[in-house]
Amino acid sequence: MPHKRNPVLSENVSGLARIVRSAAVAAFENQALWHERDISHSSAERVIGPDATIALDFMLHRMNEIVGKLVVYPEKMRENLERTNGLYASQTVLLQLVRSGLSREDAYRLVQRNAMDVFEHGGDFQEKLLADQDITERVDEQTIRSAFDPTHQVRHVDDVFARVFKK
């Protein structure tokens, strides 16, 4: 994709992640043999040990390079969110309806009905939800509006970084 700046590097890491995860299958199968006379596990370990750790080392260095050179355009991110006419909040609204006691299937049907209308005919998703009596009788206006606050989606980012970097 020519409009992307560095897709090859990140796609490379994504592909190698599959290889590293596949080593876990052999490792799990080996566990049953650790206390047996059978030593067939050692041949697999001689391959997956070095291959997985070398690949992981490469991936960590590659990701360090990618993240170190990452350029973020907050205004473009906001613009892209706004292009959806609020549809990015559909999952949050669905969960709000489920928390209100509605079944997931019924909540899905209500949210999808409004989302498809916005998708097909345009309009503002939030306003459609607020005009839908089937939704507003279950969830109040403030709760619906809170689903459209983008900070809701990233509310745990600081906690994640603190855990990852042990701050």
Overview of this structure, please?
The chain has 167 residues and is mainly α. It has two domains: 7-71; 77-152, Ribonucleotide Reductase Protein R1, domain 1, CATH 1.10.40. The protein is 71% helix and 0% strand. The chain contains nine helices and no strands. It has helices at 7-31, 40-68, 74-83, 90-99, 104-121, 125-131, 133-136, 141-146, 157-165. Helix 1 packs antiparallel against helix 2 (40-68) and helix 4 (90-99) packs antiparallel against helix 5. The model has no long low-confidence stretch (mean pLDDT 91).
Write a concise keyword list for the protein shown above.
71% helix, 2 domains, 167 residues
> Helical element count?
9
- Uncertain segments are none
Count every beta strand, where a strand is a DSSP E run of 2 or more residues.
0
- Helix content estimate: over 70%
Query: Mean pLDDT score, rounded?
Result: 91
Fourth-tier CATH superfamily name of the largest domain: Fumarase/aspartase (C-terminal domain)
The assigned CATH architecture of the largest domain is Orthogonal Bundle
Layout of secondary structure:
Layout lengths: L6 H25 L8 H29 L5 H10 L6 H10 L4 H18 L3 H7 L1 H4 L4 H6 L10 H9 L2
Helix pairs in contact: 1-2, 4-5
Short description:
By secondary structure, the protein is mainly alpha-helical.
